[in-house]
Amino acid sequence: MRVLILFPCLLALGGCNLLLPRHDPGQAWIELNPQVPHSLRAAEVDRKALDDHRFFQVSPGAHELGMRYRFEVAGSNIGPDSAPYERNCLIRLNYKKFTAGQRYSLEVGDVGFRAWARLYDDQRRMVASGRESGCSSGA
After folding, report:
1. How deeply is 123 buried, as exposed, middle or buried, from its count of CB atoms within 10 A (0-12, 13-18, 19+)?
2. In terms of domain of life, where is this protein from (predicted)?
3. Among candidates 53, 33, 34, 32, which has minimal Cα distance to 44?
């Protein structure tokens, strides 16, 4: 009986490793670090849509990353007695020096109606910043 209970737990733990693919050492890996409860997803590399929206993995050199960031603007930023307003923004970030085997971290945030993105290397140095490329309301 114990084996029957233990077996699904072990399978579930092993499945956690399947959630993200292995990092290819010949490419740069960019982790997405959204700020809860906001939503961030990888959208495109060099203006080509991605199949997996959980991370970026790019060849060395220059690339343009496109990400979708969904956040809520507080009603107090809009006007008295206003309801919160949801924004869905495409942010583009250009970086010319992606290095094979390097891990990068992509962070996003917002100020009022504006979204921003910052790319950090593995030493926690900011190496690039991104800007909005278009926003819409809602999802």
Report:
1. exposed
2. Bacteria
3. 53
Sequence-distant (6+) residues with CB within 8 A of 89 are: 68, 69, 70, 71, 115, 132, 133, 134, 135, 136
Compute the distance between CA of residue 31 and CA of residue 8 in angstroms, rounded to an integer: 29
Token pair 């290819």 is at which residue?
24
Q: What is the pLDDT of residues 65-104, one digit of tens each?
A: 999 999 888 877 677 878 888 999 999 999 999 999 999 9
Tokens 């199949």 found at: 51
Residue 86: phi and psi, rounded to 5, are -90, 135
Report the amino acid identity of residue 89.
C
